């Protein structure tokens, strides 16, 4: 195997019908499945296990679609006091969003209301 | 009807999407090498921080006023610009990408619709999908759309959309704008107009067309027609290939060694070659230039450039890098503190009608077996194709020539760059869940 020189291997490689469309079929592409609307989808990384009751763990990768409207019980990314927050959407109060999250228990009164940033459509979790 | 959609304070807006802390705060973005201010938030503009100000001159002011200072993050801006264009195109497919943050829109296929309403929907959609606020000016011509855009942005009551159609209003706003504010009028041309007592844009509008044609050439006449609502500048939906390509960069810190300059030049040459392949052109000449910092009076000054005619026109990175080095060797002088170096490729022609040289050598294999990378202009190069494909998929500079170096000591100074949130896996935005 290693008797071939680098240049010989390159030469052989170039003789392959490289990317020749009529012989090979294209495999499934996971981005098609995950990114329904690529220009409005963003990736956000999770740090911390505070959302483990919702089955979201430290190191998970979130796919967030900003084009969607949030409906009740959706997991969403919101911003509040200059931070991103992961929340479960509690439903729409009249005219404004209201949220549920562990983070705003206790110190809600003087805080500005959270603003919706995007709706989480997928959670990508590494198993090992 | 045409429209001009423009992203407000684009670079600052991009930063704010991923860092909510920057909202409602004064923010500025610096140019390459943290040289001067290239973008300001509304809050920073209100503080009187001038556009283009050298950073070192305003640094203490910025600190005193607690202004957020960021280095430019071109990966982020490029990614967001693409998202903005894709989002617009879902609603208005016919558009011209005029610059990174401005697009001309063609509404001719929307006849009978309320375009102001459509534009407001478009604006909301872009804001929602990308987080980038925009302004839209609507008018019959590009020149008037540009003016309408400025009105949309300036006056809050318009809520980011302004339709300029009524002749009375057109005259009113033209009377308020100096002629130099018009699109395409530089300061020299404005000075020429001033000699003929044309000071405001309305003065040009009111001048007789025959006079304009006689005195102001075809450029002036075209502008005159544009102001009167007759389109003379069409939408350029396909970007024209460039006539020459320049890649240059100031060094993060001054460089004296040949090796640093040669790495930088090889890097710039690779960028030029890649851009050539992107637009399917080949180059006939490669020019290399170097210069010291002319603002530094304590160092001896030197600047020079050399143009190397390529034996065969090419867009192969290896050949362009090879001749770049040859050129650099001729102009490099030791004991100078170099501030900048750059590479320009010119004499561009389309790759498919390339002149073949008399002794073309397409035995690419030889190049690998020979220890010296001999320049062999040519072969529809599958290696370059693979290189571009790898770099497209796995990120810029994944595959590069060794002559570009690995340490990159000469790289840009970007002390305050934010993470490249949308283009690098290890720099994604983070949500903390405690």
Q: Which features does this protein show?
A:
heterodimer, A: 128 residues, mainly beta, six-stranded antiparallel beta sheet, 12% helix, elongated, B: 434 residues, alpha+beta, five-stranded mixed beta sheet, five-stranded antiparallel beta sheet, 14 helices, 39% helix
- Point out poorly predicted stretches of chain B: 362-378
Oligomer: heterodimer
Largest interface by Cβ-Cβ < 8 Å: A-B, 37 and 28 residues
Query: Which structural class is indicated by helix and strand composition of chain A?
Result: mainly beta
Strand order of the main beta sheet of chain B, please?
5-6-1-7-8
First-to-last CA distance of chain B: 53 Å
Number of strands of chain A: 6
Name the structural class of chain B: alpha+beta
- In total, the number of strands of chain B is 14
Strand order of the largest sheet of chain A: 1-2-6-3-4-5
Question: What's a quick, concise take on this entry?
Answer:
The complex is a heterodimer of chains A (128) and B (434). By secondary structure, chain A is mainly beta. In chain A, 12% of the residues lie in helices and 34% in strands.
Verbal overview:
The complex is a heterodimer of chains A (128) and B (434). With 128 residues, chain A is mainly beta. Helix content of chain A is 12%, strand content 34%. Chain A has helices at residues 6-15, 30-34, and strands at residues 41-47, 61-65, 75-80, 83-93, 96-100, 115-124. Chain B has 434 residues and is an alpha+beta fold. Helix content of chain B is 39%, strand content 20%. In chain B, a hairpin with a 2-residue loop joins strand 5 (95-99) and strand 6. The A-B interface holds A 5-7, 10-11, 14, 18, 38-40, 42-51, 56, 58, 61-62, 66-67, 77, 79-80, 82-86, 102-103, 117 and B 19-23, 82-83, 86-87, 90, 128-131, 364-365, 368-369, 382, 421-422, 428-434.
């Amino acid at each position: 195997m290693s008797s071939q020189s680098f240049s010989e291997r390159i030469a052989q490689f170039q003789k392959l019908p490289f990317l020749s469309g009529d012989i090979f079929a294209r495999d499934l592409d996971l981005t098609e499945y995950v990114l329904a609307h690529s220009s409005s989808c963003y990736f956000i990384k999770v740090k911390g296990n505070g959302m483990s009751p919702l089955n979201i763990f430290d190191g998970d990768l979130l796919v967030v679609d900003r084009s969607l409207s949030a409906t009740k019980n959706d997991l969403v990314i919101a911003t509040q006091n200059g931070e991103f927050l992961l929340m479960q959407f509690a439903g729409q109060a009249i005219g404004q969003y209201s949220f549920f999250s562990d983070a705003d228990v206790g110190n809600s009164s003087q805080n500005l209301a959270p603003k919706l940033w995007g709706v989480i459509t997928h959670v990508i979790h590494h198993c090992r | 009807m045409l429209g001009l959609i423009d992203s407000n304070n684009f670079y600052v807006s991009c930063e704010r999407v991923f860092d909510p802390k920057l909202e409602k705060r004064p923010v500025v973005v610096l140019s390459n090498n943290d040289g001067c201010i290239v973008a300001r938030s509304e809050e920073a503009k209100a503080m009187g921080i001038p556009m283009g100000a050298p950073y070192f001159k305003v640094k203490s002011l910025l600190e005193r006023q607690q202004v957020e200072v960021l280095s430019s993050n071109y990966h982020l801006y490029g990614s967001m610009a693409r998202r903005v264009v894709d989002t617009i195109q879902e609603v208005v497919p016919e558009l011209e990408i005029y610059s990174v943050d401005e697009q001309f829109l063609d509404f001719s296929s929307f006849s009978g619709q309320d375009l102001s309403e459509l534009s407001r929907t478009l604006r909301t959609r872009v804001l929602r999908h990308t987080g980038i606020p925009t302004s839209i000016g609507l008018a019959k011509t590009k020149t008037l759309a540009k003016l309408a855009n400025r009105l949309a942005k300036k006056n809050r009551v318009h809520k980011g959309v302004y339709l300029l159609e009524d002749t009375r209003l057109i005259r009113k706003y033209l009377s308020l704008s100096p002629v130099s504010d018009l699109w395409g009028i530089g300061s020299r041309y404005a000075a020429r107009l001033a000699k003929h007592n044309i000071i405001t844009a309305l003065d040009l509008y009111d001048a007789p067309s025959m006079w304009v044609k006689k005195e102001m050439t075809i450029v002036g006449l075209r502008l005159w027609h544009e102001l009167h609502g007759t389109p003379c500048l069409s939408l350029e939906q396909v970007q024209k290939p460039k006539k020459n390509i320049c890649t240059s960069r100031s060094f993060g810190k001054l460089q004296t060694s040949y090796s640093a300059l040669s790495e930088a030049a090889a890097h710039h040459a690779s960028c030029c070659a890649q851009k050539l392949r992107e637009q399917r052109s080949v180059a006939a000449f490669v020019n290399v230039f170097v210069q010291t910092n002319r603002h530094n009076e304590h160092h001896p000054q030197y600047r020079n450039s050399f143009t190397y005619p390529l034996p065969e026109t090419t867009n192969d990175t290896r050949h362009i890098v090879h001749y770049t080095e040859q050129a650099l060797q001729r102009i490099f002088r030791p004991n100078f503190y170099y501030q900048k170096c750059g590479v320009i490729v010119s004499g561009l022609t389309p790759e498919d009608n390339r002149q073949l040289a008399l002794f073309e050598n397409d035995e690419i294999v030889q190049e690998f077996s020979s220890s010296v990378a001999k320049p062999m202009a040519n072969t529809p190069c599958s290696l370059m194709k693979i290189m571009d494909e790898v770099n497209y998929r796995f990120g810029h500079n994944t595959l590069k020539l060794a002559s570009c170096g690995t340490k990159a000591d000469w790289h840009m100074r970007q002390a305050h760059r934010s993470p490249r949130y949308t283009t690098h896996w290890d720099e994604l935005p983070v949500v903390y869940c405690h």
